[in-house]
User: Fold P21-activated protein kinase-interacting protein 1-like from Lates calcarifer.
Amino acid sequence: MAAVLELIAGSYEQIAFGYRVKTDEKEWTAKPDFTHHAHTASISAVAASERFVVTGSKDETIQLYDMKKKIEHGALLHHDGSITCLEFYGASHLMSGGEDGLLCVWSTKKWECLKSINAHKGHVTSLSVHPSGKLALSVGTDKTLRTWNLISGRSAFIKNIKQNAHIVKWSPDGDKYVVVVNDTVNIYDLETASVTGTVTNPKRISSVKFLNNSILAVAGDDEFVRMCDMGKEKWVCEFKAHETRVKAVDSFDMEDYCVLVTASNDGFIKMWKLHLKEELETPTLLGEVNTTARLTCLAVWKPSSVQQTTEEPAAKATTSEELTRELSKTKRVRIAAEEVVLEDESKPKKKKKGGGK
Assistant:
């Protein structure tokens, strides 16, 4: 059976592209489905949920696109500065980070900002939500790595790092995470919150994606994509993906293999077939499309892949140790997003009269 999926890419040219992929033939084809020109500056971030695609831009707005109705769904205006990162958790919440140092939590039901957190003294450069939906990590230009309890909406703990990190990402099992500084990937363990290993890429890293809990795909300022084995802390495969630097990588699973998606400054989005086995072989090209734009970011919209969440009472942990214990019990369980909505924001506040916008 053919999978329903769409490739979404943002560009310097202010346009978001959507390509519907036909997967039922040997060579996959990507046909243009929509172009969304709602931004007035280059697009810096993109994310996809079961129903929506969101794009963030240097124009300080987050634009919404309804994938079911195929219509523009409006804009989110809260950040004062470029939008740097976007990530959905579950179908009901979106997190955004920006150059204003804010992390915002949005409800996707009414698209209202449930919580606005002064997260960093400087830009928020990256965020990642734990698979449980209870916890998020953020990094910023204040040389800190911050952990957020999404149940309370408060900071759980702060770790000072020596340099400005520009990427943070949880593993699929949620037992480890990676923090990227320039060309270096630092591997952290959840329980100890300390670095357990480091790998260095030949060039500055632009994007990373966990293909499973042990293999990390890394793209940087050259035309190669490299796979790192997190346990062995070494590169296990590399291949030339594009003619110029690779800006973004994403992936999704088919029945018996993984599909790695790459986007480049050369305008191409490419899909690669990769069997995740003991000895990694070079991926084979499944299909490609030339957008003719300078691509900046990438997401895969694959509604059939969104997992059903499991209801469970939300944890009341407050310290890092309690949070770790709580998560170690539940890290393989996806928590219903309604259960982790920020409790202190669940009742609507009365608006003050007057004063500003």
Summary: The helical segments are 320-330. The chain is about 5% helix and 50% strand.
